[in-house]
Amino acid sequence: MTTVELSKRDDAAARELCDMACAAAKLAYCRYSRFRVGAAVATPHGVYTGANVENASYGLSLCAERSAISRAVSSGDLELARIAVACIDADPAAGVSESMPCGACRQWFVEFAPGLEVLIWTPSADIYAVRASDLLAVPFVLG
Ligand SMILES: [Zn+2]
After folding, report:
1. Is the pTM of this model over 0.85?
2. What SS3 state is found at 82?
3. Residue 125: how many CB atoms within 10 A of its CB?
């Protein structure tokens, strides 16, 4: 099993994008899990935010990352460069594990931008960075 290295980030641009993800998390519709997540995806043309949107039929719920990416893509902006993810209700004692993107979101990252830089904000205000292609080294590819 290969281990993925997460590197710490603390530059102003990373902080700003994470702040936007934290603000977006406050708009989450998460009446079932009570687990608020926000995301902010940056392109050369702007920043698109999203939050998790749950459904009584749990499997239909949408993660914050895919919510933000949907906004970018449906705006015609496919140049995803960096995404910040913030699970503001994650347990600080859990470290980064409760803040990591799920497998479905990893597949979305690789679909649109294998080189996407993924910033993971933790409730202790640490920021970790990793490439999408490192999070999902062998993705499903059609065609
Ligand atoms: Zn997800």
Report:
1. yes
2. strand
3. 11
- For ligand 1, a single-atom ion, the residues with CB < 5 A are 63, 102, 105
| Coil, helix or strand at residue 40 | strand
Q: What is the pLDDT of residue 4?
A: 84
pLDDT average, residue stretch 66-72: 98
* pLDDT of the residue at 143: 85
SS3 for 132? Answer: helix
Q: Is 54 a catalytic residue?
A: no
Q: Which two tokens stand for residue 113?
A: 């931008």
Question: Taking each helix axis from N to C terminus, what angle separates 64-74 and 103-112, rounded to the nearest 10 degrees?
Answer: 20
pLDDT mean over 118-123: 97
Ligand 1 mean position, distance from CA 108 (Å): 9
Catalytic one of 16, 54, 65, 117: 65
Average pLDDT over residues 66-86: 98
**Do the beta carbons of residue 64 and residue 78 sit within 8 Å?**
no
Report how far ligand 1's centroid is from the alpha carbon of 37 (Å). 10
> Do residues 46 and 77 touch, judged by C-beta distance below 8 A?
yes
Residue 120, SS3 per DSSP: strand
